[in-house]
Fold this protein.
Amino acid sequence: MSQIVSPLIDRFGRAITYLRVSVTDRCDFRCTYCMAEDMTFLSRKDLLTLEEIDRLTSAFIARGVRKIRLTGGEPLVRRNIMWLVEAVSRHLGNDLDELTLTTNGSQLARYADALAGAGIVRINVSLDTLDAAKFRVLTRWGDFDQVMRGIDAADRAGLKIKINTVALRDCNEDEIADLLRWCHGRGFDLTLIETMPMGEIEADRTDQYLPLSLVRARLEQRFTLADIPYRSGGPARYAQVAETGGRLGFITPMTHNFCESCNRVRVTCTGTLYMCLGQDDAADLREPLRASVSDDLLHATIDAAIARKPKGHDFVIDRRAAPAVSRHMSVTGG
Ligand code: SAM
Ligand code: SF4
């Protein structure tokens, strides 16, 4: 019989209410800023089963987590992913406020209706360009039209869509205004993200990095941006764009410290708990999960890990520096 468990509060008083779960490290794209082209992926035997992920998420929900995001790699390439979505969605309306996912959109045409049917209300779709040729270069393997069909299907299914765009110097910086108009024209929020130094890639991150302070200053020459208190439960800070009537989010881990109000932790598809996106410290939850049918050891391991959650990340983008953390973003899913 499990003990009665208490909410997860770290030593800086931050309540952990948001869990991001990477359900696979695999992906059908190879975005240049995210992965190397010849990535080596985990062997399937190291992965948590979907049943184990369900048990893990339920343990976090019992500890006060109210929002769960499935991510990856590409979450929709994990086999039987809808089983997990449906399993976790049983908590919705009770002890879970939101189940959502971040996807590259490639499989949305297939899954949009099922996701909406399972109680998913909002999704994030990553899209860095509206130019099909550039999209192919950036994602290496992605098909722009397939992603557009996926976005259309999600829209038709009634899912609220937020587009995530990584701002990349000399790549999509001249397109941000067009992306903004396109998103808002279709009723989607747009959130811009700074590149983070995670994992070895072929390109030099100093060449890719574009501070959002600069992007915002440029946008403000054309648009009227008013900061608003709206929050979507994550690290984005939002502005209302007068000309389009839509919302524009900024995720600025590099130019502003976004750690003070961090309510998040991340679990990888092997059951490794990362307390901070930008630090290497982690706790293995797979072993306690597999050690016993009781969750007691699991909860004790989670408690010990949360007690070590660091104050913040140490991201620096410097031509000479190695990545701040050696793992790729696709391990923890952002
Ligand atoms: N495959 C899914 C997708 O692309 O939406 C989910 C996983 S992906 C790792 C999650 C988000 O992280 C995407 O929006 C992607 O653009 C972003 N991302 C990947 N590598 C990044 C990096 N080094 N810095 C900033 N964002 C990154
Ligand atoms: Fe795949 Fe997402 Fe990384 Fe692109 S950003 S390679 S779609 S995991």
Remarks:
- The CA atoms of residues 240 and 247 lie 5 Å apart.
- Residues 27, 29-31, 34-35, 72-74, 104, 126, 330 surround iron/sulfur cluster (ligand 2) (CB under 6 Å).
- The two ends are 35 Å apart (CA to CA).
- The chain has a mean pLDDT of 91.
